[in-house]
Design brief:
Largest sheet: 5 strands, antiparallel
GO molecular function: aminoglycoside 6-kinase activity
Order of helices and strands: HHEEEHEEEHHHEEEEHHHHH
Radius of gyration: 20 Å
Strand order of the largest sheet: 1-2-3-5-4
Strand content: 5-15%
CATH class of the largest domain: Alpha Beta
InterPro entries: Kinase-like_dom_sf (IPR011009), NH2Glyco/OHUrea_AB-resist_kin (IPR006748)
CATH topology of the largest domain: Aminoglycoside 3'-phosphotransferase, Chain: A, domain 2
Pfam families: APH_6_hur
Number of strands: 10
Keywords: Transferase
EC number: 2.7.1.72
CATH superfamily of the largest domain: Aminoglycoside phosphotransferase (APH), C-terminal lobe
Oligomer: single chain
CATH architecture of the largest domain: Alpha-Beta Complex
Length: about 325
């Protein structure tokens, strides 16, 4: 393991994501802390390899935008995945959700160092997500897996509610609305904010569910003990329609490039709502709000093509 640290450099996608935020949207102490963490990441990984007696295979690429995953083997040769995330509390919440699910529909946690933002997870097939399937089949499998995750949260859980989470997003969205670069999308921003106000005025579901929070086809991987398992939750508690929004948005490039894109987007909303017994209008509303929020955030960091694609999609709905 003497040369393991040489193989623990962060993947380029993570470097670009944190570098862009540090220079653009987050030119503050938070952004600077992210960049310091990025520089320290090989050392943090090496420390946990030694502490937990792990042998690294390779860093998973292209990886995510807020964490690094190292494919490893435990002391008995069992494969696993070492996930290192920003020490901002997100990994602790992820661990709480994964522990509550206990492998039902989601990757199983093996060990955790919550203060350092490090998890040891069972190894899935990281190169095989639901996006490897035809879209219709992928949506069916995604819906079936998501149903297994929708359970009541544990008493005393640490998760934020959808209303509070989206209130913070809405505050930032209002601030960005005033920027000169947002002039062309202010009408769409206003509609998204109005939709959110109506949605949070009524809870939707009679009782809150534990939600994945970032559920899309790319976050569902092939497994050995189960065909498909979810990874990377950003858990919240609230109504199920919020959790479905990113499934509506999946494969956005293909959806928008096809003839009849508006009708296809509305059909996807209707199909997912019906298959999971979710109100269609609420699903549409949350999809619009989340797409506008994500699109405006992309514009704010200079990622105009990605932002415009999301806003075009929101406009279709």
């Amino acid at each position: 393991m003497a040369n393991a640290k040489d193989r623990l450099e962060p993947p380029e996608r993570l470097v670009r994501a944190l570098g862009r935020e540090g220079r653009g949207a987050r030119e503050d102490e938070g952004g600077a802390a992210d960049l310091r963490w990025l520089a320290d990441l090989p050392g943090i990984a090496q420390e946990h390899l030694e502490r937990w007696e792990l042998t690294p295979d390779r860093v998973q690429t292209p990886g995510g935008r807020s964490s690094m995953v190292v494919l490893v083997r435990q002391s008995d040769g069992t494969p696993a995945a070492l996930k290192l995330g920003l020490p901002d509390g997100a990994i602790a919440r992820e661990h709480a959700a994964l522990t509550h699910w206990n492998g039902r529909g989601a990757v199983r946690p093996l060990r955790a160092d919550q203060d350092a933002g490090v998890l040891l997870l069972e190894r899935l097939h990281g190169d095989v997500s639901l996006r490897s399937l035809a879209d219709a089949k992928a949506l069916l499998e995604a819906a079936a897996t998501l149903q297994r995750l929708w359970v009541p949260p544990a008493e005393g859980h640490p998760f934020t509610g959808v209303a509070d989470h989206t209130a913070a997003l809405a505050d930032v969205l209002r601030e960005r609305r005033a920027e000169p670069w947002a002039a062309d999308v202010r009408t769409l921003i206003d509609e998204a904010l109005e939709l959110r106000e109506g949605l949070v005025a009524d809870a939707g579901d009679p009782s809150p569910f534990l939600l994945h929070g970032d559920y899309h086809q790319g976050n569902v991987l092939a497994g050995d003990r189960s065909p498909w398992l979810a990874i990377g939750p950003r858990p919240l508690v609230g109504e199920r329609a919020y959790d479905l929004a990113w499934l509506v948005r999946d494969r956005l490039d293909t959806l928008l490039a096809a003839p009849g894109a508006p009708a296809a987007a509305r059909r996807r909303v209707a199909k997912l709502a019906e298959s999971l017994d979710v109100d269609r209008d609420r699903l549409r509303g949350w999809t619009v709000f989340r797409a506008v929020d994500a699109g405006v955030r992309e514009l704010s960091t200079g990622a105009r093509p990605a932002g415009e694609l999301l806003l075009e999609f929101a406009g279709l709905l």
